[in-house]
Amino acid sequence: MKNDSHILVADDNRGVLEALELLLRRHFRQVTLIRNPAVIMSAVADGRPDVVLLDMNFTSAFNNGNEGLYWLERLRATYPQLPVVLMTAFADIPLAIKGIKAGAADFIQKPWDNDRIVEILIAAASKVRKHRDVSCSPVMYWGESDEMSRLKDLVGKVAATDATVLITGENGTGKELLAEEIHRLSGRAERPMLKVDMGAVSETLFESELFGHRKGAFTGAVSDRKGKLAEASGSSLFMDEIGNMPLHLQAKLLSALQNRQLTALGSNHPVSFDIRLICATNRNIDAMVADGAFREDLLYRINTIRLHLPPLRQRKDDILVLARRFAAEFGTRYRGCEMSLSDSAANRLVGYHWPGNIRELRHAVEKAVIISGSSDTLSASDFELSTVASVSPEIPKAAMTIEEMERQMISEAIDACKGNLSAAAQQLGITRQTLYNKMRRYAL
Ligand SMILES: Nc1ncnc2c1ncn2[C@@H]1O[C@H](COP(=O)(O)OP(=O)(O)OP(=O)(O)O)[C@@H](O)[C@H]1O
């Protein structure tokens, strides 16, 4: 039976590629071959292979392994979980050691032994399959602002503990990526982190999603189903949009966390579970507690460590650092070379308000790379930034659209009420739910 893995082979020798294709297709579900190393990053981004088999000696450039090492480092930086097995035509042990030190999973010499190469690739693939969910997930760039340096230090201290973590921050500030980073640095990283998004699950299914159900527990429960708490046992569970959880379920979750036991819907038998819980919200959870919309005792439970990701507009030092990383990443993916920013583009990005935070910046750079001309430098005109989003308090009201004015009024009301959303909603003459909806819409 074939191994259920996808192997990407990068070698500029046609004969080698043909021989490896014949061999590997007999043993692996999918084999992708590339001759030009310059497309390796985009081939990995698009094909999501489980293992890369990388030649060290591309004849197009050098013959001393430098090019292979260069691509190995690039792959390790962008896809740290992806195993890279190196190949060399020369019996060059120092080079092999260099490669292994740089993070290669293993090393093969040409001419290779068929059984040995298959064995090595299967071993490398089995390691990554444990990480399949996160193997190609984007890397978190920390930036250079003081806020992010402090946060990085704190994460370094808490990641290895089993402390529950609450991550707060506006939409797109990287809460999920930070949760993945914490999990990656924890003792539970061998197993993938599981995620449950309380903003995406319908309220009727919240309970079953978390606790699971027995067949027949409710109409439509046609078979037993494990909930996320049980599924994530032994690993970490990322609970996104925790502020969306209805009160009755908050009580059930609190009791499950306290007793480390859960009871599936339709069952009378509590079962033990062991998770590291990482929660996130873009809401003002303290204001929700003050309003009675979130249980204070549950907040204490999930809040052992609170990490706040500031909006991008409050850490302007990070904008260009991140933009340059994205330009390098997407330039390599779409154009085969890293791209840079012109001075005018850099000024435009720093001057923008980034209401969608890093998600918006990432998309803006990706789009700019795609639509830009042949130059490898992105100019200000390559960036299409939303005008609604760029509203700043200095703009006179007469020059604003209705949406811009509404956003500003909401923002001012929340500030005036010191984050108390009930009071802000009252001041604005709308319900709290409408206020939440508008905050979400305007990324406040
Ligand atoms: N520090 C970072 N480095 C690199 N990419 C980042 C960073 N932070 C966020 N991103 C990217 O921005 C996008 C949004 O990130 P993420 O989903 O983690 O944000 P979020 O705060 O959880 O968003 P939401 O609240 O909308 O769910 C993703 O594509 C992610 O890869």
Keywords:
alpha/beta, binds adenosine-5'-triphosphate, Sigma_54_int, transcription regulation, Helicase, Ruva Protein, domain 3, phosphoprotein, five-stranded parallel sheet, 18 helices, 444 residues, Rossmann fold, 4 domains
Describe this structure in words.
The protein is of the alpha/beta class and 444 residues long. It has 4 domains: 3-129, Rossmann fold (3-Layer(aba) Sandwich), CATH 3.40.50.2300; 146-309, 3-Layer(aba) Sandwich (Rossmann fold); 317-382, Helicase, Ruva Protein, domain 3 (Orthogonal Bundle), CATH 1.10.8; 397-441, Orthogonal Bundle (Arc Repressor Mutant, subunit A), CATH 1.10.10. It contains 18 helices and 16 strands. The chain has a 5-stranded parallel beta sheet, with helices on both faces. Strands 7-10-13-6-14 form a 5-stranded parallel beta sheet. Helix 2 (40-47) crosses helix 13, helix 16 packs across helix 17 and helix 17 packs across helix 18. It is globular and about 75 Å long. The structure holds adenosine-5'-triphosphate. The site of adenosine-5'-triphosphate has 16 residues, from helix 7 and helix 15.
**What value does the Rg take, in angstroms?**
25 Å
Bound chemical compounds: adenosine-5'-triphosphate
Unreliable residue runs = 130-136, 388-397
Q: What is the overall silhouette?
A: globular
Overall mean pLDDT score?
A: 84
Helix percent reads 40-55%
Say what the CATH topology of the largest domain is.
Answer: Rossmann fold
Structural class: alpha/beta
Q: How many independent structural domains?
A: 4
CATH class of the largest domain: Alpha Beta
CATH H level of the largest domain: which superfamily?
P-loop containing nucleotide triphosphate hydrolases
- Biggest sheet descriptor: 5 strands, parallel
Question: What is the β-strand count?
Answer: 16
Strand content: 5-15%
Number of H- or I-type helical stretches: 18
Q: Strands of the biggest beta sheet: in what spatial order?
A: 2-1-3-4-5
